[in-house]
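Chapter summary example.
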Amino acid sequence: MKAMLALADGTVFTGESFGAAGEAVGEVVFNTSMTGYQEILTDPSYRGQLVAMTYPEIGNVGVNREDVESSRPFLQGFIVKEYWEQPSNWRAQQSLREYLVANRIPAIQGIDTRALVRRLREHGAQEAVLSTTDLNPQALVAKAKASPGLIGRDLVKEVTCAKPYEWDESTWSLEQGYQHANQRPQTRDQGPFVIAYDYGIKRNILRNLVTAGCRVRVVPATASAAETLSMNPDGIFLSNGPGDPDVGPYAGIVRELIGKRPIFGICLGHQMLGLALGGRTYKLKFGHHGGNQPVMDLTTHKVEITSQNHGFAVDIESLKGTAELTHVNLNDQTVEGLAKPDASLFSVQYHPEASPGPHDANHLFVRFLKMMGFRADG
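The structure predicted for these 378 residues follows.
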């Protein structure tokens, strides 16, 4: 089936569909990861976006039930150079095409993704339409121009959980798969109790918290500070998520939590902390999406290779005298980490939990434990 991708600037690409029939509208961004397309597909932070993979061959490992990061795919559409129909991996349970069709996600292959990425790098991420039903270039460009974009949109409300729930699954291993806290009696009733705010939380964040020895309860993004503090947690975690951080009630809730309990934020949670401390955020030209971003820890001067997925950043000038800059991106010097020791909080813009992905920053979960007054499990 023929498919078409049209950008708001008038650029049009024609290829073949390998996903669901239909039409998807969103901001088109590119991801530089060579592996882990299941993590990308099911990361709620991609709500409202069409994702183009820079690695040319996608689909060759198929899809399995273990490598997803949420209940379903949340991106609007998927764009690749070359799709491989037949999986070649012992863990595959279905093809990528079958998975996308089942979840109603349009996808296009056979386009020049290098040309697409070059355009986005030069002109910035922009709105686009991916369609298998309307193949009129002028009509698709008009739809892309009419798309609202991400600035000013509260997408957290579309991905957060409806009610609190407990999480006890730990990280995966080849020998045992996923384990649960009740399979590890030495930690079931011990360790810090963490409330995790769900702005679009990835499961592997929760798994890393459990593996570190935490007891975890996930709450909706709108849970009030009073509700959270009434549960008497040892610490509070602020998750990743989609959209513009400077909308909705979320930063206001975080502001009421600062100083009450130790806080650790990742990605959107990092941006929420920046706003709650009185700072500002701004839209990046094309964002950081991929598994190979170099970040320097300014406290140690060590460089970590990190996985990232964000289109907004914290303006460090707006936090002068309020918070400490702890990490910077070596590609463009944007803020990658903040800390305020006197309030027992820290945050990073990148993803230490990435799976698959670089694990250079796994130590941050242990840092959170120590901040709460606990030692790492085992």
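To summarize the output: Residues 113-123 form the longest helix (11 residues).
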